[in-house]
Amino acid sequence: DGGITQSPKYLFRKEGQNVTLSCEQNLNHDAMYWYRQDPGQGLRLIYYSQIVNDFQKGDIAEGYSVSREKKESFPLTVTSAQKNPTAFYLCASSIVASRLADNEQFFGPGTRLTVL
Amino acid sequence: DAKTTQPPSMDCAEGRAANLPCNHSTISGNEYVYWYRQIHSQGPQYIIHGLKNNETNEMASLIITEDRKSSTLILPHATLRDTAVYYCIVRSFTGGGNKLTFGTGTQLKVEL
After folding, report:
1. Under-70 pLDDT residues of chain B
2. Partner-chain contact B32 A56, CB within 8 Å
3. Are B102 and B45 in contact (CB under 8 A)?
4. Any CB–CB contact under 8 A between A43 and chain B?
5. Based on the number of CB atoms within 10 Å of its own CB, is A97 exposed (0-12), middle (13-18) or buried (19 or more)?
6. DSSP assigned state of B5
């Protein structure tokens, strides 16, 4: 089945440790995104990538890093510099098309990160 | 992207139509209205989008006012599985990327 996978579903880390969240898609999409969601809030964009080996900061990139070495993978590292890392992290992908109508984003199931 | 305003919560009886409003009074001519929903602790799911004409698909209908300053998402026969947070998003197509700006949405609760 085509789709986006994120692993693990739940992740616990000690304060001060870096942690990397996985996101893989087999939809052949060029663009991938990372969002963060806090309780009762909407999603906020962390980073996005429209093509392999290129990515841009979103609205809340501080304390995070990404890489895009392969089209199907867009891992997110939550570094010790992120002051409030506990959150629900969502990965998404879309095609990069000339028509806006084709730019629907498909979301993964999310990873809930808890920093103790 | 234009800011949207939605009621924080709504209730709907199962089998009835759920009408979810969204105000986007600062929308500009090239901005589309998108709707997503998020069932608890899952990733958001695309529902529908439109520019100025009303749209319908297998999930819902989207009614956009003539001045485009507001829209309504209609779930014609709501079921318990439609209980979710519904996000109205207004965005334009720019070369800078395909970014969605989510607000806090409307929590729709469908009850028996």
Report:
1. 1-2, 92-98
2. no
3. no
4. yes
5. middle
6. B
